[in-house]
Model the fold of this input.
Amino acid sequence: MAVNVATERQNGEEKAGRRMFSFEDYKQILRIIKSTGRQTDYRGALGREAFIIMRHDVEYSVERAYALARVERAMDFTSTYFFQWTNNSYNILSRRNMDMIKDMHERGHQIGLHFALNGMTDMELVRRQIVKEMNILSQMFGFKIDTFSIHRPSKDVLRENIKLPGMVNAYQDDFFTFAEDAGKGASLKVKYMSDANHIWRYGYPDEENITGHNKVQILTHPFAWCKKGYNNFDNYKALIREKFREMIESVDNECKDFGEYRDWFMEHAGLHE
Done:
């Protein structure tokens, strides 16, 4: 039976009177997790019979990841943020982004690599590239990065159950149960919930889904979350406006002759306060 994506999104815009994908919505999820006492990171979950892991794959905006981390800090909560090395939307090594990521690390959040396959299908090559990228990032940031998630993993990659010495894969079988058909009714050792495409396809992380399973992994994409909470279309509009502002500010900082044009771009993009 085909999924009516538009209907799913429309029905999911509000939950128990809260705007979905708002910071208040997120805080309620954190309150439920904290009430269980089972929250941990990936290494802390190894060998445990019960755990809840909160993970974030950062796709388009380091700023939005940083904002979500601040929400967590206000609630004395830490989680794991995975950043891409090869991403056209942000530069993980820009001074501004490095400062934000380092601050997140210093405040207790785990920082990992969100590895993009970029067409690679040779699993040995994939393994070597993951190790290479994690070693480079560790050197650049000045702290050890030893945890990774895979961007849009194929079924072949999930079946591979990649495990590397001294490193942790968010999709390894300690934290994730691969099934050819993970639909409703599938028997899974780990309850996995993800907000991919602005839809909670494997269940919304409410009290029933969080407390009703011994092992839980929750994945969010920070670009989908903001203070107000938007539907999918309005969220993309807001995100693109933010990235446009970032581009204007970057050009203005680099090019002395751009100053006379800055206001024009800001005005025509509707970015003036």
Observations:
- Residues 232-254 form the longest helix (23 residues).
- The chain is about 40% helix and 15% strand.
- The two ends are 47 Å apart (CA to CA).
- The chain has a mean pLDDT of 91.
